[in-house]
Amino acid sequence: MRTRLLRITTVPESLLILLNGQLEFMQQHGFDVLAVSSRGAYVHEIRKNGIPHQSVFLTRRISPFADLVALFQIILLIIKFKPEIVHTHTPKAGLLGMMAAWICRVPVRLHTVAGLPLMETSGIKRQVLKLTERITYACAHRIYPNSKGLAEFIKRHFKSVNPKKICILGEGSSNGIDTKHYAKTPYLETEAKRIRAKLGIDADGKVFGFVGRIVRDKGIKELIAAFKQINNHNNVYLLLVGAMEADLDPINKSDLEFIHAAGNVFMVGHQHDVRPWMLAMDVFVFPSYREGFPNVVMQAACLELPCIVSDINGCNEIIEHNKTGVVVPVKNGRALAGRMKELLDNPEQRKQFGKHAREFIVQHFEQQLFWERLLKEYRTLLMNKP
After folding, report:
1. Which end of the chain has less neighbouring CB within 10 Å, N or C?
2. Model confidence pLDDT, tens digit, residues 40-49
3. Entry pTM
């Protein structure tokens, strides 16, 4: 007999990209999966992959009326679908999904924490976000932080949560990584050369690159400041891959003006396949302020790119300082510039960092192993209901 599994995220991008392949794996191993999120362009892709999808009125903003509507919609969905497991991701989906599952007394209620916006907020907003997390954790049977640092943060700041609820699957991550997909191939290297030529990057030019949302808390301010400090070197470039979000967390106007005015800075928007864009880079830079367990750092490391990351949970669990890459203090443009300059001048170190980084990722974060761990967790909880 198959088990009904409801997976909820706030936006469909998270279902398709952050959980890529995971829902299909569960479908193949005895689960009837229903995916739930807000509407969006990616819904068609989710359904095309064979996963049924239901849209509800979820928003990323704090919106009491819209949230009440979404809560009611999820309750009705649970009553109709009758899942044995509800597993949520992202803060808003976690709050409403866990509340609805608790109200409906779903036998197994699980929530993955892949980052906490409250880490970069203060005042009333921080207190509101903290309250919503408390409610989510109270309604859940298990809480899965996707990094050791995030687990410690939850234990430290949410002392009312039973520590037995908090569990890390393996070494961390929300989905592991397909190490065969994120590997250098002649085709990808040819595509990377084509990208560099199209952008007008010299063959011997050195490209610092970033992949992610172009927003303040990804450290774009510090990245721009650091790049300006090394911009007097010949043939250096900055490549920014990702969508800019001007509504929720916009970058500084002066930084945006610099990006548009500089002839050696390229902002190319969201790319469906980031692999050739990453391989067009010489050094991957990720100076984020807060993360859970960033997929893009795993991807870059898996592609043997030397990485410079900020000293925050997740990043400092993927990159070991001066062995598989470089870890710099968070929000420190000067330190970031120093390490960028250092790697710029040391090609052999870049090569060694990249080689060791891939070895570490393959050993600890292979996607198939993560899926098997999660499948075992599901089956154990179904047999011994919390």
Report:
1. N
2. 989 999 999 9
3. 0.86
